[in-house]
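== Polypeptide entry ==
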Amino acid sequence: MQPAGSPDPRNSRVWRKLSPEALDSLRGPILLRQTSSIEENWRWGAEDSSAVEEHDGASWDADWEWGAESKHQNGNTRPALPTSPICQFASLSHDANYLVCATDRLFVVLKAGQSQEYALVGKGVPEDRDEQITAVTCAPLFIPSNVKSGVSISVIVGFSSGYFRIYDERGRLLISHLLNLSPVIGIKIRTITPTSLATSIEPDGDEVLIIYGDSKAVSIDGPSVWMAIKVVAGYKDFGETLEQPALVYKKWQFDKQKRILDMVSLGPASATVISPPAFHPVSSTFLSTRRTARYIGVGRPMITFYATSEAGRSHSLKNVATKVTSAVTNAMFSFAKTIWTHTPTSLTSAYPPSTPSPPGTPTSSTPTLPDTVAPPVRMPALCTLSDTQRQITSIKLSPPCTLTGKSKLAAVTDSLGRCMLVDVEEAMVVRVFKGVRDAQCGWVQVEAGLRGGSGGRHDTPEGSRRRGKPPTLLLAIYVARGVLELYHVRHGPRVAALAVDRECKLVQTATGVLGGAYGGQGGPGTGGLAQCVLVGPTGEVRRVRPEGCF
């Protein structure tokens, strides 16, 4: 039952909406693709009436008041022709105040306002007409000088040309790098928490992972990204120009799999159960296996675990890497002094400045790698889970544990209508969900002790830890036919099955802030517990409120 006086989360049908200006920007390229669709391509059957099981005589749809907008008028039994998703890519900030949506030709940055709308604050397009946007992620940054929230927003965009570019929230281009010639297929950010920073045996830090379509990936040290963005943005605010700063990175080659569709980074570890035992060749004493980097690649074969014990984790581009990494430590404590004492000549660009070509000189649309880009290093594979008939299409790490700061689980979706729960420490599939073709997954956390309402103001992992219990972890699975399911993990029951719109995007909040751990703002505690929202095909945004399921 609901506590007296507490709001019922099911009373809110639509949490927020995209502003008309944002919808007009996104619908332009989408309408061109919709003109070629025909009504016969859509199959309407009895699955609409049987998609959701009955719940004690009352449907979840009626309880949550979702789907009322989809009821047909004038007694028509045949639904209207569905629309395409409002965007191809979507990403949320850590606190859900910023939403980034993108098509293949445009990205928009939206900010939540007091009018319950995501208002358009910035947008951008590819630099080259032949480029297409292939990946987008919202990257919150810890900014000590931002007294209002302490966090600023940037957007990392990957392109079909292999470029990845970083923009600020207004859409201004800050950084552009080409480290590989294959299309970027994914961008992942791994942030450390104050807990993992204090307990980690191996040196660890924030990481930005750029995933390419040719089984390569570039791991960029988060502190170098943080510093480069702040330096370039600072100069742009004063109307000054700055050469492209270099980044500290490591380029990996994952050749164990024929095709990689997605990847995540697990960070360093002192020991893993899937590591083979090692013994001293003379004394035969057991040697502890420490991994400086760990990754999980999914595709074909299904899942492969990679790890390396290589001591040197990052490349240094000229001498700027040393300057950037040494400056980051002091920057957290005296940000203004560190940033504003830099001069444009103190940052040496990793790429030679471009010179304009003489008129009439032929230009090639195919980019070439700069000479300063290091070759990839082969990443050893530890073990592989393979099924010749199955291909994994995506992987989503669970929020970091509040005690260790490490993720323990991952949800993966495959090409045969399955979703699997994987223990990333044991390298073991612990649960399989069937009948979820074309599924999207996300993680939702509920404060420990809540049953049927907000119940308190401390909606953070720290609030649960003060009560001695970790947050309750739920897995949200959105199925393309218009069903959203919530499950207790690892082996708990299904707590909800909701009828929702088709062609939605399930988007999870970012799990941390770049540089946040050093300022006491790392991990999910920065913006509360992990959340998920559904972005509908007409621009409505519904928040997944699991409190109503208990």
User: Anything to note?
Assistant: The radius of gyration is 24 Å. The chain has a mean pLDDT of 75.
